[in-house]
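Weekly structure sync - notes
Attendees: PM, LS, DV (DV joined late)
Agenda: review two folding runs queued last week.

Item 1: First target. Sequence and structure tokens pasted below for the record.
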Amino acid sequence: MIANPIPWPGGARCAVAMTWDMDADSAFNWYNKDTADTLVAAQSWTRYDPLIAIPRLVEQFARRELRLTFFVPGWVIEKYPAQIDLLATHGHEIGLHGYLHERSNEIGEDDELYWFGRGLDAYKRHLGKGPRGWRAPSFAFSKHSLRVLLDTGIEYDSSLMGDDIPYALREAGGNRSLLEFPTDWTLDDFPHYAHNRDLGYRMPISAPLRAMEVFRSEFDAAWEFGGLWISVWHPALSGRLARFKAALELLDYMRDKGGVWFARLDQICDHVQQLIAAGRWTPRVETLPIYDSPLPEFSRTG
């Protein structure tokens, strides 16, 4: 069913990247600039992420010898440096995820560049080098985002949803490109668990068993057809006891099935780049922007 199957290392049936967006209280402050200090219950809900969930995740993944990718806003790097160090010392990749979890497609081009620059500076100050990967906060990749990423040397993005395997994003009118590692809303924990009245999240709360049923069915299809399974988890949601227990059981299911390459996204990036350089595989290329809005078909003249 996949028209351009990619060979995975060691003859694996599929690749699995369990990624985590460590948002903490960044988006909480972005959308509640003047009232965040008095929304104390919601504040505590978001801070469960770095204070409770991150140490729990690190401990459990170390037991399983798993190293994963965590996307972190620059402001969170500044405010929770000990948690960033904990992730880094345990071999997890840290990708960039904005500065205050700003949605790039809701702000202008100049503002997007400004906030991206602040996030990048915060990342470099703490980690000593730039990130290889990026995920747009809330998947809000704008028509300017590709150029911003290319200008700063980002090698891959994981915000879009246009394929079942890696593909390439090329800048319109040029030859520059980067790799896209796609995910999908079916592989995000937010629709299952995000319910907070103060923040306007009104998702019907799923039992972990129901959420894992969705994740597992997507994994089974990726395993059958050779896909790339990239899940998106949030420590404030899936780091809680019952949900994280279910996530670990899902990992055990995958391991027991066999034929799975568990990898960080930077490792997948290395693998895909090596395949391309050796002429063993060529990704599908999509040029951005696809079109400009409004479409000319809306015009009633001419």
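Item 2: Second target, run right after the first with the same settings.
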Amino acid sequence: MTVAEDPKLAAQETHGVRSHAEVSRLQTANPSKSASRFIYLDWLRGAAAVIMMQGHTFHSFAGDRQGSWYVLSQFFGGMAPATFLFLTGLTYSLGMERTERQSLSPWQKITAALGRARYLFVLAILFRLQVWVSGFPGSPTIDLFKVDILNCMGFGMAMLALFAVLSSENRTRYSALAGLLIAGASPLVSLIPWSQAPWLVRIYLEPNANYFSFFPWASFLAFGIAAGGIVTRVKAEHTSTMLQWAALAGIALVITAQYFSNLPYTLYYGASSFWLNSPGLPLIKLGVVLIWAAMAYAWTQYATNPLSWSWVRQLGTSSLLVYWVHIELVYGRWLGIWKERLPDWACVLASVLVIASMVALAWGKDRFYEMRRSRVGAARYAAS
């Protein structure tokens, strides 16, 4: 059965959403397998979830929206979407690598990749519908069509599905080039007279501070696909060396992109806005993600026991559930009396409570599925 035919498998491939207990079993059985190699990716995804949740909590509840705490929270919170998109692209690439090893036609490979994109896009629609229903009758109908990060993932993956027919080496090369082109074209896309285009097309393509549009956000998906091709070709014993080079490349990207972004002249003649569509910002964020990936690997391999339970990794293995539920909790009507009213210290406390509740939710989800699998296994054994 292909990934495209199995929605559950598609979810696991796309998000790395698998139970903490399942990863631990795989590691215990054979620590050299890919499950143990990729633990740092789950940890990095969990760290991004922590950053995301504190950013959303401050954004929803902070009363002082000009203070240093709020500004710092939103500054770091802006790294979470880039990290999620990069990791989604990376796991998308792992699925492409798997289909490459199977005897599939080029069309079957594209269909499998489109199946993963379709799964995420359907989830995006359901998410927007749930948010709209939750806010009814106060939520405007236009909110149903908001391009959120799940929409960006589904749409961007569909646009990049053709990379599935390429060999691993060519996919790495051309997806990295695609990432550069998407980031580099963003200021030019802003110059297009979008007033003549259908509104729905515009919000998916035109750089916009209120949406996760294809330009420039999909560049992180493309960079993630390139990274996935590299990760799968590197032997397990060379992972540490690979991530050391990744950290150095990240530092070089941050310094170089920041330098060129600060030059008094530009190729875009005023069309580029640094925080909206500048090619420099995606490259700086990519550099930070690479540095964080190396730090996550060092932490999981040398500072902690990879086989032990980790609350950060627990969040990472249930990132989709955590994203969905915490958005409703933070932005929904449940805590509306405190919206934009809390002092900084209360926002910090609220962030801790939200994160702790999501860890408990992710842990409870794993325990539920473990118990259900145990009951099913016992029933099958009794019937045999």
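Discussion on item 2: The chain has two domains: 1-63+304-384, 78-291.
Action: LS to circulate a short write-up before next sync.
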